[in-house]
Amino acid sequence: MKLLLAPLTVLAALVMVALALPGAVNADDAPTNNPLAGTGWYLLENKGAPMIEGTSITLSFDKNGQVGGSGGCNSYGGSYTVDGNSLRFSDVFSTLMACVDNMLNQQEADYFAALSQVTGYRRIGPERLVLDLSDGSALVFVAIPALPGSAWVLIDDGLPSRERLITADSGVTLTFDKDGGADIDTGCNGSYYTTYRLEVGALT
Questions:
Q1: Residue 41 pLDDT exceeds 90
Q2: Which residues contact 121 (CB under 8 A, 6 or more apart)?
């Protein structure tokens, strides 16, 4: 089962919200010559157009010049280079799974096209990232909360309202510890323990 962890991604079937966020992933721990390294973001606007409600596109930078995330339907990856406030993406690739909804397909295609137009970036405080495009428009992102040490409560199972089984008062919670473990409280049949692994643009 894939879990939808708001605001990380909306590709999964379950929606969860944070009980406590220890602080967004930011550039404080990144090398000084690459302030984007180690940061993660989700898209708010593409050229002024907001995200389709209930969907999410993510962008993560690792410390080895690799970038990745979710386009809303497909996972993607590639390389990036930073020089001052100049930013370029290259060798971007994605999986080839079609979205169920044509509007989601178009939203993802527009995002991938915009990545090829990125020329630079701006940080607006620790929570906001703006990628400037060659046509004068921009991609606007907000920081992804760090998972280790955070706790989440399940509020939506992603089903149509008439079929919904899980609500905000179901008591289902998910807690990530800082050692790669995760506790799940079902709100009914006790607790379970599992492990997790974070990679660029992916949670396993």
A1: yes
A2: 36, 82, 85, 87, 129, 130, 131, 132
